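Sequence only, no structure available. Ideas?
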Amino acid sequence: MQGYGDHVKNLDDLIREKDELLARASNETPQAREFQEKRGKLTARDRIRLFLDPESFVETDALVQHRKDYPQSEKFVPGEGVITGYGTVNGRLVFVFSQDFSVMGGSLSKMQGAKTGKVMEMAYRSGAPVIGFNDSGGARVQEGVDALSGYGKVFYRNSIYSGVIPQISIIAGPSAGGAAYSPALTDFIFTIDGLTEMFITGPQIIESVTGEKSDKQTLGGARVHASKSGVTHFVYKSEQECIQSVRKLLSFLPQNCRQMPPRIKGNDDPNRVSMALRQIVPVEANKSYDVRKVIAEIVDDGDFMEVQPDFARNLTIGFARVDGFPIGIVANQPMYLAGCLDIDSSDKASRFIRTCDSFNIPLLNLVDVPGFLPGVNQEHGGIIRHGAKMLYAYAESTVPKITVITRRSYGGAYLAMCSKDMGADVVFAWPQASIAVMGADGAVKILYHDEIKNAPNPEERAKELVQEYEKYHCNPYVAAERGYIDSVINPEETRARVASSLHMLQTKQQSMPERKHGNMPL
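Reply:
I predicted one. C-alpha cells follow.
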C-alpha cells in the first residue's frame, strides 16, 4: 500500500493495520455473500469451511495482489480471486484452493495462477492431496498473455504431480475456456446439477461460428458431462452433498503414491456367506441382472461408491472395502449392451485402472462379458485402439489384481478384463462360468457350417453341436486344468475368497522394466 508505515508509531498500530488488510483481502462482506446466494451458490470460504474439519483451515498468500502494470490495474482484488491454504479431512492433511466468483468473476490472472501453483507445490512437497473448488469465468482478459502464463503454471503442476498426490476438482460454477483444462488433468471431477458449466467455447461463440444453438447447461452442464462426454465423475444435487462425497472419496485414497490407502475395519465378517449370489446371477447367458447387487453382497456393509455411473453404463466402476481394505472394482454390467465392452467403457475402465494403480488400490474385476461390441461405428471409432488401452492399463498395473468370472468371458474381452495372462494375481470362476473364444452358438456356426448345412435336420444338428461344444469348451474346468483359473468356487464363497486374497497380496512386490515411460495407445 502506498504510504504504508508512514503513520505507524507502535506495535498495536502495526497489528491493527495488518488485521485491516487481512479483513479487506478476505472478502467476507454481505455484498459478496449476496452475490453468490443470488446465483444459488455458497461463498468460496463457506465451501472450505464445509469441506475441512472445523477450525483446521490455515490460509496462505491472503495478501497476494496482481501487478499494477496494465490499464485499470489499480483496482484492489481481494485475495486475487482465490483462497488457498491447508487443513484436515478426518484428521488427514489436505491442501485446498477455492476460486471466488464474486471477485472479478473468479478470473485467473498471472498472480492467481502463481498462488494456486504455489499451494499445489506445497501439497506435492508435503505428500498430501490437493482439492480445488473451480468457479471462474476464465482468463482475466485485461492481463492478456500474463493470464495464459498463470494457467500454464497450474496445468504444468497438474501434469507433473499426476499419480504422485491425489488431485480432485469440484466444478462449483463456470469453468470456461482454459479453466476447463486444469480439472480435466486431475484424478476426479465432482459437479453440481444446475451450477456446473464446463466448456471450452461458450454457446455464443459456437453459434457465431457453426450456427449451432445451445445454452450453457445443454452444452456443458453437469448431466451432459456425466452421461455424454465422460469428462466428469460425479453429479450431486447440492454443493453440501457434493462436498461430503469428496470427503468420502478421500477415505479410500492414500495421502500420496508412496503410502497405502487407509484400512478401516468394520463389523462385517470377512467370511460372511452370501447365498443371495446364487439367485442374483442367472445361469442362462441370455438373462440380465444388475451387477451392483453382486457388488453389494461382496463388499463391506454393501457400501459401494460408484464412479461415472451415468457414462458407459455397460461397465460399472467404483470404490468399496473388503475386510476394511479399500479396493477399486471393475465389473461388466449385463443390464446395458449385455455387458459388452465398447469404446467408451474401455476408456472409462482404463482411466480408473491407472488411477487405482497410481495410488496402490487393489483391483477386483467381476467378469461377465460376451465380447467387444460389434459394429461399423465401433470399428471406425477406433475400438482397436480404445480396447488396447484396457490391455495396456492392466498389464502395466502392479497393484494386487483379483478376477472373478461369474458367467461369461469370451474372446479378446476375456483378456481385456484382466485374465491370468494379463497380470491377474488370483483368478476365481463360478461353476456356471463359460470361458472360450466365443459363445457356443457362434463357434458352432463357424466350425460346423458345412456339416449343419448338409444335415437332414440342420436345426437339430446345430442344437446337438452346441450342447457338445458347451460340454467340452464352455465351462471353467478346461481353463482350470491349464492353470488359467486358480479355483472354481461357489458364488456364496466369493467374499471370503476375495478377503483372503487381499490379505495374501498385501506384501506383493512387482516392478516394471526400467524405462522413461510406456507409450499407451491414447
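The chain has three domains: 11-250, 276-438+475-507, 440-473.
Hope that gets you unstuck.
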